[in-house]
Write a structure and sequence with these properties.
Blueprint lengths: L6 H5 L8 H17 L5 H13 L8 H13 L10 E3 L6 E5 H6 L4 H14 L4 H16 L7 H13 L9 H7 L3 E5 L7
Antiparallel strand pairs: 1-2, 2-3
Helix pairs in contact: 2-7, 3-7, 4-6, 7-8
Length: about 190
């Protein structure tokens, strides 16, 4: 359920609604991502939180399009940073990013990964309330000096994406050029099948 324009601003005087264990995991996830990808910008943080909350539903227009996208990406996969095969990105541990370079290098099957990606899009639906909880907590971390962003910049960015209905966004140019991100977002339970 949408809480309307300016929702993040109405909630800033409230405490985070994340369970304490989720806050601890989320703090660790964000700290790890910032440490590994220090060129991350606010839109990259939003993309991470959107994926962690909503899964891969925003990335699937059709199975054929998803298959073509994966084939094109694998055919032109550039060098990138050292990464694990998967990163847990959601505070509840349900959603992971499978990093394509180490996945393929370890002998992973692209068809199985595509199936897991599509299944995730079809079976996992996050909520805007959870997205708001995560973003609110990220703003708190920024205000506490734990994330390298300006709180006003984060609020302005979030206000814009909220007004636009929380759309999917691309990684920032700086992030793309530095890290050449290549991954798929899936439910962790599907990892055993890929």
């Amino acid at each position: 359920m949408r809480c309307g324009k300016g929702c993040i601003f109405m909630r800033e005087t409230n405490i985070s609604k994340l369970p304490e264990a989720d806050e601890v995991r989320f703090r660790t996830i964000l700290a790890d991502q910032i440490a590994r990808y220090p060129q991350m910008e606010v839109q990259d943080l939003y993309k991470l939180i959107l994926q962690a909350t909503m899964g891969s539903e925003h990335a699937i227009s059709s199975v054929d399009a998803a298959r073509s996208w994966l084939r094109r990406e694998l055919a032109g996969l550039p060098e990138g940073p050292e990464e694990p095969i998967s990163d847990v990105i959601s505070s509840d541990g349900i959603i992971v990013r499978v990093n394509l370079r180490p996945f393929i290098q370890s002998g992973g099957d692209p068809s199985s990964l595509l199936d897991a990606f599509v299944r995730t899009a079809n079976e996992y639906w996050g909520t805007e309330e959870r997205l708001l909880d995560h973003w609110f907590f990220a703003v708190q971390m920024t205000e506490d000096g734990e994330l390298p962003f300006e709180p006003s910049q984060m609020r302005a960015f979030f206000k814009k994406v909220e007004e636009d209905g929380f759309p999917a966004v691309h990684h920032s140019t700086r992030y793309e050029e530095a890290y050449h991100p290549a991954y798929r977002v899936i439910k962790q339970e599907f990892l055993a099948e890929v």
